[in-house]
Amino acid sequence: MEVRRLTGAIVASIVGAFSITGCQTVPPPEDDLERLGEDIFFNETFAGNGRTCGTCHRAEENFALSPAFIATLPADDPLFVAETNPNLADNFENPELMRKFALILENQDGFGDLPNNFNMRGIPHTLALPTSIASADGPRTGWSGDGAPGDGTLRSFAVGAVIQHFTLSTNRIADVDFRLPTETELDALETFQLSLGRQEELDLPLALTGDVARRGQEIFLDNGLGKCNACHFNAGANGDPVIFGDAGNLNFNTGVEDLPDQPADLTGQMNPPDDGFGNPGIGEFNTPTLIEAADTGPFFHNNSVETIEGAVAFYNGESFNNSPAGQLLSGATGSGINLDATQVVEVAAFLRVINSLENIRESIDLIQRSENIRGSNRLRKIELLERASAETHDAIQVLVGGGLHPSAVKSLNQARLAIDTVLRRHTSGYIADALDALSAARDKLVGT
User: Fold this and answer.
1) Integer CA distances (angstroms), 67 to 27, 61, 72, 124, 366, in order
2) pLDDT digits (tens, 9 = 90+) for 204-217
3) Structural domain boundaries in the chain
4) Angle at which helices 341-371 and 378-401 pack, to 10 degrees?
5) Fewest beta carbons within 10 Å, which of 4, 128, 197, 254?
6) Distance CA 320, CA 369 (A)
7) 285-304 per-position pLDDT tens digit
8) Domain 211-341, CATH
9) CATH tag, 348-445
10) Helices 211-221, 341-371: inter-axial angle, 10-degree rounding
11) How does DSSP classify residue 289?
12) Burial of 192 (0-12, 13-18, 19+ CB in 10 A)
């Protein structure tokens, strides 16, 4: 799916909504601010090296990035700017680790010693942010919860991204190597990012129809067995309020850094240990949401595990159970996590099904939004329908990857065919078919 540039007339009308007499400004309506943020996210380079926010957070890749997707990109894609710009050839990216494992170079602890002071991290998706970044100690952005400079907010995250990733050289001098976002641009970027994905948490348990996923949900919610719900309450990113109060998103040292044979290490490339939260770090990373997990791998901050089954199995291993978080859990519950292979698969099946349900919800929403567009803005309708097709494809892949619900997969294939027919023939005649097939797939996954 290609994310297209808004026309100049649209951008001008949006920007014009900010201006009134004198030096004052007023915010535009929410929809206009969101659209402006979308345009900035995908098209604004901030006078830098050609990258945009959408260079790494791809709409068709669930606003994240994987090695498989990177392999489809042309050589002149801005993602590969370190390979084409001599001023960025050293200490800006590691092209081998980026291409093989979708790892991006981050100077989490500052730019004082570029050859040695860096981390290699995966790209977190930007879905469901309203439900996942609030904590009792302030916003938690990025993998370690301190992905933004300054106050840690989503607005500061955008500023940090420009300085880190958009610069023309590793000198990183404002107004020479890039320009910083304006307050209006930060408002718009924040509004757009907060609009992506779920706006509410699940309310577990769900009336799942599949035996395997239903058992996986039981294990997930059992604080004496899977123990997952304690830190991923309702499969989200926040701690169980019964256990943690209103702490919201939490940071833990789960021992991911202690995993042996990490893929990036096997290459022989320099890959310093990641110290996580703080400067210097204390080895902690913040809790990600799990509802969107199955189709946003690889997993963990260092992309060290490829499959959702492997990510669940991690919590059985020595790295987790010997970690501070594992010891805390063991002390609170009397034991570590010890799931058998079938139980690991069952928890993963649960996560696959709730991910697919979210894909379906998002697909239906995108189709309905496309139908609400009136007038001649055909490109916008196409954008939304292409994203709906991508979401439906993800729902299919997530279920097929776990050997789950073939009947629902059949309905999802019918839905995607209908959406793609609308796109190919430029007719809305198959919209109802797509919505009916998506609803049928949902009903095969969960009851009322």
Assistant:
1) 39, 11, 9, 14, 26
2) 999 999 999 999 99
3) 8-194, 211-341, 348-445
4) 170
5) 4
6) 43
7) 999 999 999 999 999 999 99
8) 1.10.760
9) 1.20.120.660
10) 100
11) P
12) buried
The DSSP line for 173-226 is -BTTTB-PPPHHHHHHHHHHHHTSS-SS---SPP-B--HHHHHHHHHHH-TTTT
Which residue type does 204 have? L
Q: What is the DSSP letter of 106?
A: E
Closest by CA to 249, choosing from 218, 277, 223, is 277
Give pLDDT, residue 387. 96
Question: How many C-beta atoms surround the C-beta of residue 30 within 10 A?
Answer: 10
Helix (H, G, I), strand (E, B) or coil at 19: strand
Query: CA distances (Å), 117 to each of 62, 148, 235, 307, in order?
Result: 30, 17, 34, 29
Q: Which two tokens stand for residue 241?
A: 């309020």
Neighbours of 386 (CB within 10 A): 21
Residue 257: CB partners within 8 Å, gap ≥ 6?
273, 274, 276, 283, 302
